[in-house]
Amino acid sequence: MRYDRGYVDFGRPPPPVKEGDVLTVKIEGVGSSGDGLARVKGFVIFVPGARMEEEVKVRVTKVSRKVGFAEKVDDDSVEETVIDTEETEEEEE
């Protein structure tokens, strides 16, 4: 895989998540700044405001080669996002 700066990372698989993904994760640890730490197929995701052992629904906000960042979402906001997307598609037609 080739990155913007010409760096080639032969040994690391691509991240298993991408920006915008909505996932349910279990917080396995707490980072040095107090953010919750979850893993998806070994890939670390930091979730601000999440507590140890908590199971939360999150939306991935940023993905780098080694870690990802996500924010907690509730079920209502996920449904609103889906509705907004459908309305946009209808308006384009």
Domains counted in the coordinates: how many? 1
Main structural class: alpha+beta
- Name the CATH superfamily classification: Nucleic acid-binding proteins
Q: What is the CATH architecture descriptor?
A: Beta Barrel
Q: Please state how the strands of the largest beta sheet are arranged side by side.
A: 1-5-6-4-3-2
Mean pLDDT: 82
Task: Supply the number of helical segments.
Answer: 1
Q: Which CATH first-tier class would you pick?
A: Mainly Beta
Jot down its keywords.
19% helix, OB fold (Dihydrolipoamide Acetyltransferase, E2P), globular, 93 residues, alpha+beta, six-stranded mixed beta sheet
Mind sketching the topology for me?
Elements: E1 22-26, E2 29-30, E3 36-40, E4 43-47, E5 55-63, E6 67-72, H1 75-92
Parallel strand pairs: 4-6
Antiparallel strand pairs: 1-5, 2-3, 3-4, 5-6
